[in-house]
């Protein structure tokens, strides 16, 4: 369920008509509904149980104002960089609700996370474990660790967003895990308390989640038999959401019930890292039509948003439903919806039914809250588009559009006057 509904034919974000935001902010922009963010946080927490840690995967939607809404619902943060740590902290998320994932944590990032007293480092290799041990023991602290194990489960999702197969770069191989826990026990500054896994994203069935959790349960029992105190199981994120493409993933309640059933007897604190499920349906990208044109075989609607603003279609072949913000009477005809970027892949979707689109019309891309704004770039020197947060009948720009001067401000001409001229 989302909070983007039509009233009198006009799409609203909660109680705010989208054309009103467009007038104030200018297209293109992202808009997020606080009510949807809150609802998803509540549904997820209720499903997995209040005692579990639900650490929102910040990479999905990292705007600080959004994180603050989620923090107020009791969510923590799953971070993958020092930058995301800073975001989580400035949104008021306490260290005890932060888990740190990722294959390439630097010493500086480890130090910052130790200073913030985070809940857990999800360690992905022996080299990382040894480095964390050095960094933590040098400052006299102990790093709580879960080893990310690779369960060799195929999540059945897009190849580019699968992470839990044995040839993916993530985690430590299953067979190596017991030896690494033994090593962790011997290393100073490390306290190995958990098992962590994450098998991929936009997963549309329960079976791979259950299989991975079962394998994790076997591992925990094995480790305990070897004398390790394992009291946490981090099941990662990955639950898919409907994109209007006919795929209907399980709902969060069914997902939570299945995973609780599989892990019930283990007596561990569960950790979850949902991203898309919380943020996906909570956001739209809004774009304006600049031109339309008819070629021999096809008609195009050319928008002011491009692949640099929403790269999922170009990168993964992902589909986002595209609908007019204001309905118009008449028969629709098929248009290829494209952006202004000088790349053939700057094509959002073919054959979108639109009724007499014209310059100035506004279109909405649905389900764009997750992995939308965060993956944007300034390719073609196009400014990152604003993000707007709605709450009831109010809206606020929570990230402004940079000016051209802002975009150029980090660049400098080299001062080579000290080198003698030839
Ligand atoms: N935990 C870890 C360790 C992850 O790598 C991810 C996502 C998540 C949690 C959150 O997964 P979610 O619940 O959102 O599926 N850019 C791609 C998705 C990449 C996902 C990367 N990892 C897309 O636009 O579809």
TrEMBL record:
Gene3D superfamilies: Alanine racemase, Lyase, Ornithine Decarboxylase, Chain A, domain 1. PROSITE patterns: ODR_DC_2_2. Pathway: Amino-acid biosynthesis; L-lysine biosynthesis via DAP pathway; L-lysine from DL-2,6-diaminopimelate: step 1/1. CDD domains: PLPDE_III_DapDC (cd06828). Residues 36-279 form the Orn/DAP/Arg decarboxylase 2 N-terminal domain. One of its GO terms (molecular function) is pyridoxal phosphate binding. The active site is at residue 342. Its cofactor is pyridoxal 5'-phosphate. It catalyses: meso-2,6-diaminopimelate + H(+) = L-lysine + CO2. The modification N6-(pyridoxal phosphate)lysine is found at residue 59. Residues 30-369 form the Orn/DAP/Arg decarboxylase 2 C-terminal domain. GO terms for biological process: lysine biosynthetic process via diaminopimelate. Pyridoxal 5'-phosphate binds at residues 238, 273-276, 371. Its EC number is 4.1.1.20. Substrate binds at residues 276, 312, 316, 343, 371. Keywords: Amino-acid biosynthesis, Decarboxylase, Lyase, Lysine biosynthesis, Pyridoxal phosphate. Homodimer. Specifically catalyzes the decarboxylation of meso-diaminopimelate (meso-DAP) to L-lysine. PANTHER family: DIAMINOPIMELATE DECARBOXYLASE, GROUP IV DECARBOXYLASE. Belongs to the Orn/Lys/Arg decarboxylase class-II family. LysA subfamily. This is Diaminopimelate decarboxylase. It comes from Parvularcula dongshanensis.
């Amino acid at each position: 369920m989302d909070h983007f509904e039509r009233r009198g034919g006009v799409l609203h974000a909660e109680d705010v008509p989208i054309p009103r935001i467009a007038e104030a902010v200018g297209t293109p922009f992202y808009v997020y509904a606080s009510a949807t963010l809150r609802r998803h946080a509540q549904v997820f927490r209720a499903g997995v149980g209040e005692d579990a840690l639900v650490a929102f995967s910040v990479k999905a939607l990292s705007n600080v104002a959004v994180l603050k809404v989620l923090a107020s619902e009791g969510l923590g943060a799953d971070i993958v960089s020092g930058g995301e740590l800073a975001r989580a902290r400035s949104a008021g998320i306490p260290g005890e609700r932060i888990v740190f994932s990722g294959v390439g944590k630097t010493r500086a990032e480890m130090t910052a996370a130790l200073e913030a007293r985070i809940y857990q480092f999800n360690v992905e290799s022996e080299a990382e474990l040894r480095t964390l041990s050095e960094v933590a023991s040098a400052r006299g602290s102990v790093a709580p660790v879960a080893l990310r194990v690779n369960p060799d489960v195929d999540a059945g999702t897009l190849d580019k967003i699968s992470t839990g197969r044995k040839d993916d770069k993530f985690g430590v191989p299953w067979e190596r895990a017991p030896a690494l826990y033994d090593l962790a026990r011997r290393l100073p500054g490390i306290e190995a308390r958990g098992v962590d896994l994450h098998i991929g994203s936009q997963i549309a069935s329960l079976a791979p989640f259950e299989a991975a959790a079962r394998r994790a349960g076997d591992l925990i029992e094995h480790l305990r038999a070897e004398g390790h105190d394992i009291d946490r199981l981090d099941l990662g994120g990955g639950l898919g959401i409907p994109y209007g493409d006919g795929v209907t993933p399980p709902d969060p309640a069914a997902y939570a019930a299945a995973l609780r059933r599989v892990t019930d007897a283990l007596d561990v604190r569960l950790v979850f890292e949902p991203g898309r499920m919380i943020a996906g349906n909570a956001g739209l990208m809004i774009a304006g039509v600049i031109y339309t044109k008819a070629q021999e075989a096809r008609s195009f609607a050319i928008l002011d948003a491009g692949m640099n603003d929403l790269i999922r279609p170009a990168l993964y072949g992902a589909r986002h439903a595209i609908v007019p913000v204001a309905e118009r009477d008449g028969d629709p005809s098929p248009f290829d919806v494209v952006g202004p970027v000088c790349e053939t892949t700057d094509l959002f979707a073919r054959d979108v039914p639109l009724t007499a689109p014209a310059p100035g019309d506004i279109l909405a891309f649905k389900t764009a809250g997750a992995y939308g704004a965060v993956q944007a770039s300034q390719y073609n020197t196009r400014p990152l588009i604003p993000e707007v947060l709605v709450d009831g009948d109010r809206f606020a720009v929570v990230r402004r559009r940079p000016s051209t001067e802002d975009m150029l401000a980090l660049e400098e001409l080299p001062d080579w006057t000290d080198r003698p001229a030839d």
